[in-house]
């Protein structure tokens, strides 16, 4: 057990010290004592314990890859909470009583005076045998027999709503301030800020207004931004669940061919070699990574599958002992240089796994991006404004938009109230909107259809927001495969435009995943939790003494592989269908902003991927400009459990004469805020 734990931690790049260093540095060796006892206590295997620690490590945003003694108690509580939540999900029809239930019962009784009028009953005393019983229903003094069929069950004490019954009307209209979300104390607190030195434009007038009419007159109208939807996607109302193995094979083959063509053009090499041909000379082949077994990928179980065109889909074992740095996951397409003397095992000496596309702003005007574009132009009466002369303000939030104890959508109402004060140019709302994993949705405690819930709680409020803010305000809606009222497939078509009342064309409906250009900024959105899926499947190695930011590395795989979802096979729960719109997961260009909502902790990272597909080339030439950069944002979820979550506010300042200021990295201010 101890050796397996040590090996698993070393495989996942976590530092495991010896006993002497543990005493001096106050480190705890999980492999001796604590980790083994946790494996026994929680019934976990070594690889499962390390995976749980990895999730705990990412959510806490720890650095250095160390296992500190001070984190051991928190990690144990994390494991206990995960096991508790897992058991509760299996027992959906039961209520788990806690100390809070008792406190709520007592507090409610004291407020209503019930405890004084009706004291707690004691043990009944039997009636004496000599005493004549006038009423046969009276078995004990102070107690009367009643028919059980006529008894009314007492109200159930709910952990989140106190004593009362959960009727369908209550979950849609709870009492104001009677929910944990309404009683929260950390409203609109700033979690983190990227480029804090950038400031927002304010009004030139500083004198206070004299009346409400003057306030309205001084409010400048929102500058309408231009939106261009880029890419291909499934159409609304399409028929799905017809995905065949042939479609998946063709999609993988198409990815490998595009990747091989890109690498061969850059490196001027031939990639038509069979992966299983025995040769004493160095060969360069292209293929995708597979796992030998059914479990998680590790260094000893990596297989390289060649293309059907050149290798007939054959697989060989990939030996990585001579590669000092890598980051691998199933489905990753890469070029491998090495020797295959036996024809069964390819000993790699170098791997090339990155071939990103340039930014859309750097593509030549003569060369259009390889995708269909649907332009959503400005209104005819709007004057054409310069795309870089005004600041661009974007608010982005991801679902769930309601807490788990009701369907009142309180966080969503608060977000729209904040948007009315902030007056952003674009409001980006990413699903799920009607979450299929919501407790009331799963248990069927609703008296409305899922489409009616979306219409009343989301669509109506969005239309009222657009009408109130004026024709300059824009709203972008992105669905999720967890939406109960929409097609449960991935990639996913946009919402049906016929269901929205949008006379001024302020509401834009984007597919999942989707790419859109807002003025000069290109944004990519994907509501599938690809970061967490990659985190659970990735295996990496770094040279000694070199630290690597895990979130940056995971998000960079999307740019390097030119795909919104490069993982294959897809994670459990993702209804991947590659037959509807071939190429809908491909990135037609590298986006300036990449919005990836995830269950992991919210963050803002700058991604930098070499265009030359080789880190060695940059080190030899020193050409840092040969890298493509993008800003990745995880805004978190607007609702987390019974309380509020986080959202992101993005501010893009206009160009200045200085050349350095034209880089989006230096012109974007991103604020992660709590709702």
From TrEMBL:
Residues 251-353 form the DNA polymerase alpha subunit B OB domain. Accessory subunit of the DNA polymerase alpha complex (also known as the alpha DNA polymerase-primase complex) which plays an essential role in the initiation of DNA synthesis. This is DNA polymerase alpha subunit B. Residues 155-178 are annotated as: Disordered. It is found in: Nucleus. The keyword Calcium does not apply. It comes from Sphagnum jensenii. Belongs to the DNA polymerase alpha subunit B family. Coiled coil: none annotated. Residues 394-605 form the DNA polymerase alpha/delta/epsilon subunit B domain. Keywords: DNA replication, Nucleus. Pfam families: DNA_pol_E_B, OB_DPOA2. Transmembrane segments: none annotated. The lineage of its organism: Eukaryota, Viridiplantae, Streptophyta, Embryophyta, Bryophyta.
């Amino acid at each position: 057990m101890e050796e397996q734990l040590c090996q698993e931690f070393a495989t996942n790049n976590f530092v495991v010290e010896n006993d002497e260093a543990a005493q001096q540095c106050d480190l705890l060796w999980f492999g001796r004592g604590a980790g083994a006892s946790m494996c026994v206590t929680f019934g976990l295997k070594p690889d499962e314990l390390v995976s749980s620690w990895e999730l705990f490590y990412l959510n806490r945003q720890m650095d250095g890859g160390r296992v500190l003694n001070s984190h051991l108690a928190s990690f144990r509580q994390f494991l206990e909470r995960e096991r508790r939540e897992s058991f509760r999900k299996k027992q959906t029809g039961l209520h788990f009583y806690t100390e809070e239930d008792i406190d709520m019962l007592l507090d409610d009784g004291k407020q209503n005076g019930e405890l004084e009028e009706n004291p707690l009953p004691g043990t009944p005393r039997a009636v004496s045998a000599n005493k004549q019983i006038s009423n046969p229903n009276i078995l004990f003094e102070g107690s009367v027999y009643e028919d059980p069929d006529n008894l009314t069950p007492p109200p159930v004490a709910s952990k989140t709503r106190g004593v009362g019954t959960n009727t369908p009307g209550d979950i849609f209209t709870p009492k104001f301030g009677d929910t944990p979300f309404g009683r929260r104390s950390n409203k609109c607190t700033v979690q983190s800020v990227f480029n804090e030195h950038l400031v927002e434009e304010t009004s030139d007038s500083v004198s206070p207004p004299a009346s409400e009419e003057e306030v309205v007159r001084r409010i400048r109208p929102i500058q309408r931004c231009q939106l261009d939807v880029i890419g291909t996607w499934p159409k609304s109302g399409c028929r799905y669940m017809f995905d065949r193995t042939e479609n998946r094979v063709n999609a993988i083959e198409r990815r490998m061919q595009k990747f091989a063509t890109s690498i061969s053009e850059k490196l001027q090499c031939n990639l038509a070699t069979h992966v299983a041909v025995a040769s004493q000379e160095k060969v360069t082949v292209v293929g995708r990574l597979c796992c030998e077994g059914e479990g998680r990928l590790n260094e000893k179980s990596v297989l390289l599958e060649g293309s059907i065109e050149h290798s007939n889909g054959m697989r060989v074992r990939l030996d990585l002992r001579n590669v000092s740095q890598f980051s691998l996951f199933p489905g990753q397409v890469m070029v491998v240089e090495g020797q295959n003397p036996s024809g069964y095992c390819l000993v790699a000496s170098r791997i090339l796994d990155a071939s990103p596309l340039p930014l859309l702003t750097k593509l030549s005007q003569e060369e259009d991006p390889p995708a269909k574009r649907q332009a959503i132009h400005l209104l005819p009466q709007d004057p054409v404004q310069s795309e870089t002369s005004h600041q661009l303000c974007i608010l982005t939030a991801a679902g769930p938009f309601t807490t788990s104890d009701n369907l009142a959508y309180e966080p969503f109402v608060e977000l729209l109230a904040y948007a009315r004060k902030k007056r952003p140019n674009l409001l980006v709302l990413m699903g799920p909107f009607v979450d299929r994993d919501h407790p009331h949705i799963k248990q069927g405690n609703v008296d409305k259809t899922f489409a009616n819930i979306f219409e009343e709680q989301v669509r109506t409020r969005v239309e009222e927001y657009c009408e109130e803010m004026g024709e300059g305000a824009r709203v972008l809606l992105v669905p999720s495969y967890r939406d109960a009222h929409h097609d449960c497939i991935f990639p996913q078509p946009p919402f049906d435009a016929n269901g929205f009342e949008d006379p001024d064309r302020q509401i834009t409906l984007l597919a999942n995943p989707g790419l859109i250009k807002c003025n000069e900024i290109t944004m990519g959105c994907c509501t599938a939790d690809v970061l967490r899926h990659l985190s659970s499947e990735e295996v990496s190695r770094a040279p000694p003494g070199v630290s690597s930011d895990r979130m940056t590395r995971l998000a960079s795989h999307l740019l390097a592989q030119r795909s919104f979802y490069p993982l294959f096979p897809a994670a459990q729960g993702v209804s991947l269908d590659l037959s509807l719109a071939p190429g809908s997961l491909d990135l037609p260009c590298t986006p300036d902003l990449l919005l990836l909502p995830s269950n992991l902790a919210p963050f803002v990272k700058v991604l930098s991927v070499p265009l030359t597909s080789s880190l060695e080339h940059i080190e030899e030439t020193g050409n840092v400009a040969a890298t493509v950069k993008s800003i990745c944002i995880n805004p978190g979820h607007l609702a987390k459990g019974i309380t509020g979550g986080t959202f992101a506010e993005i501010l893009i300042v206009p160009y200045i004469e200085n050349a350095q200021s034209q880089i989006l990295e230096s012109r974007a201010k991103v604020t992660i805020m709590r709702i």
